[in-house]
Hints:
It is built from 9 helices and 8 strands. By secondary structure, it is an alpha/beta fold. It has one domain: Rossmann fold, CATH 3.40.50.720. Strands 3-2-1-4-5-6-7-8 form an 8-stranded mixed beta sheet, with helices on both faces. Strand 2, helix 2 (39-45) and strand 3 (49-51) form a beta-alpha-beta unit. The longest helix is centred in the C-terminal third of the chain and has 14 residues, at 157-170. The chain is globular and about 45 Å long. The model has no long low-confidence stretch (mean pLDDT 96).
Amino acid sequence: MTTIGFIGSGNIGTSVAKAAIAEGYDVVMSNSRGPETLAELIGELGEHARAATPAEAAAAGDFVVVTIPMKAIGDVPVEPLVDKLVIDTNNYYPERDGQIEALDQQQNTSAGLLQEHLPSSHVVKAFNHIQAPQILSTATPSGTPGRRALAIASDDPASSTLVASFLDRLGFDTVDLGPLSESWRIQPGTVGYGPELTQAELAAATAAEQRPAPLR
Length: 216
């Protein structure tokens, strides 16, 4: 049985956990406030879920979902995630996260910064451009006409392949943007961010996207 660790148990993390449990995964949930604060959520998720600290969730997961505010990525435990696949759902919102010069100047991407923080992990960007409830409500079986697609990006193609398979199990086609340096194509404010698009539509939208000018 594959176990997924969650660092962050907000709306996106909870929806991904529910979808994963429905597909036979076990989940280990964590947040910044302590396992005892997750009792209600664990009761809702059922017997295939348990609560832990972020470090424990990182250690327990065969792969791990990081779904916390961008400003908190420095708190993500490093050592338990060595050699592990890490799915990054984060977006950069300056009004919440404060100004981050590397992102304002287009010198990096939010997922690229997480990869820098986790140099021995395999970060894959995913789930950042879908509303949390839609992870469950818009999922459809493989081969369904008009099936929704989600974008991914990673510097490790093998990890991208694994996440594409995971997304397929959860109910989505995939558009692979390539390396993390291209993940800006699906950041907030882009055409592909938010709408329900098919694989062909999302591929076209992300390919046509123009990167905004750096802030001065």
